[in-house]
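Q: Predict the bound structure with adenosine-5'-triphosphate.
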Amino acid sequence: MGKSARELARAARVDIALDRRDGVVLNRLAQGLFALLGLGVMYVLAQAFAESPAIFVQQMLNGLQLGFIYALIALGYTMIYGIVKLINFAHGDVFMVGAFTSFYVISGLDLHRWPAWLWAGLPEGVVILIGTITVILLSMVVSAFLAMAMERFAYRPLRNKPRIAALITAIGVSFFLEYFGALPFVYSNNYITYTRPFEVTVYTAGSISPWAIGGAWGLFLLSLAGYLLLKWRSRQGDLRAQSWIRHPLLQLGLLLGGFFSVVLTLAGVQIETGGEIWDLSASNVTLVIMGSSIILQVILQYVVNRTKLGKAMRAAAYDKDAARLMGINVDRVIAATFALGGGLAGAGGVLYATAFKQVHHLMGIIPGLKAFVAAVVGGIGSIPGALVGSLIMGQTEVLAAGFISTPMRDAIAFSLLIVVLLVWPQGIFGEPPGEKV
Amino acid sequence: MSILEIKDLYVSYGAIRALHGISFHVEEGEIVTLIGANGAGKSTTLRTISGLLRPDRGEILYDGEEITRLGGDAIVRRRLIQVPEGRRIFAPLTVLENLEMGAFTRDDKREVQASMEWVFELFPRLKERLEQAGGTLSGGEQQMLAVARALMAKPRVLLMDEPSMGLAPILVEEIFEVIEEINEQGVTILLVEQNAQMALSVAHRGYVLETGSIQLEGLSAELARNPQVREAYLGGG
Ligand SMILES: Nc1ncnc2c1ncn2[C@@H]1O[C@H](COP(=O)(O)OP(=O)(O)OP(=O)(O)O)[C@@H](O)[C@H]1O
Ligand SMILES: [Mg+2]
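A: Predicted complex:
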């Protein structure tokens, strides 16, 4: 009797071992397949690049626009996941509501021109600048309130229930927002043409003032010099330099200067290499998207790292009960996190609608999913990860569409998730598991 | 009037009752210890006082005011502060940020700065590690940080849950010295411990908690002489 039990146990162990070996083989096989696929993709892209570097780089410029929009959405996924461990599937729909808010205030109220109501003689540029900022801010506020309401009424009652309950609720909230929007007296289920808050201008060689290009390079080089100097000083043990190095203005200078100098140069300067004339272009929509996205990111980074609210957010994300013992009102901190994430998604919605010139009640689904994938690729819970993952996502998508297969663009973009997770299971900036109790 | 008075407190986790009507009191300026074996309900008591758990029945009076139903933040604002079991410092935050979180409910920057100086006097080692992530500190340093963080709230009453847990004997000595020093500076302390010997050596009075009820109470010296206590908590007759 005793012996047979032992034999049974051994047999079971062998079974498990076999299972595991099968698993390893399958994993290797899958990894091999994806590696092959990855190599194939690389090969096609390298060929496309060799054929015409100019067209390739032009595609990359177009991809920046998408990447920066995804970043705004991905930040919300990552922050909300960080604090409540919930994938808020309705986040893409908050983005949609942001787009619709701007649609209504622009088409219905002409709000993007409000400064002109007050001062008739104001220069057009100023009117548009202030008007556009107002529209974006207003859409951010509406989206922030929506996200907060969602948290308050749908997720908070489930806070201490099994996580799957909140996840399914999130899917429900998402469907509710999507199909509530489809009602004829809400948004209707048609594609609606969006009125941009500003006209599109396409910049090509010669149409950008050298001052602008020089200014961007100046900003970048100055910030870079400052960064290197501070880095050196802090190596020497200068504590002040250590805190200055994370100063938001420095980050802003590096990011704005870095991206703008490259984009403006590529678009505005005629380059000739190997007999090919690079006649690249960038539209003002891309520049606006890049600029606002960077500014919002830096502000967010500042809020999270430097303000009392941000520190409370990080503390509560790590240990809610300990945060409560500090007198932090965790419910309020979570609500604020949803508000921040929702606001950023709302801004993303306005920029997306401006780029593609239409709005639709299901427009949040695909960008939402892509931003989610971007957040996972970057390492969910990590704010810099959200930006990097999103930029990679944007590039993958346009390069796949441009050089591999347009109908397959989304499939390829989503496969990226699998490839990256095979290499970095935690995402690029993710933390190894098991660090938290 | 006692600064902290617990009256007939019943607390449950779901269907499991952890506290069966306990009562005790702490006077201003005292160190009172609550000793008991694993699972006796010591942490449950402190968590309920801090507003993390809702009692089924009973009252918690703090400085004459009933605080039984208050939220955790309202309790911290009344400067009734807890150092939780297992340190629970915020590992990804720097030491400085951990201390700032301790002062979360306080607005007067100058007074917060004064508390910071006080904390550095007690724990000079923390001052050298301000920019380091809390999670990279050694176990002993983390315990120092946990106490320091609580002191940043400028407590009137400090609830300490097994501050000596997992520390080397020399650090245990050190932490109990700090407890006495904090108390001498006017902070009332309710100390939960399994290390009954050390706890009784610093406390004025003590209570013995067993499976959710208070079995014994008295002056520390009396308890330390009590044969039952010696048997169960002080390692033999
Ligand atoms: N979250 C929980 N869910 C269910 N039961 C719990 C929970 N926390 C504690 N208990 C139970 O409540 C009782 C008291 O636990 P408590 O943590 O208060 O003990 P303790 O005296 O602090 O013990 P220790 O010295 O081990 O920390 C125990 O029986 C424990 O199993
Ligand atoms: Mg305990």
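A: The beta strands of chain B are 4-13, 16-26, 31-35, 57-62, 65-66, 80-83, 157-161, 188-193, 205-210, 213-219.
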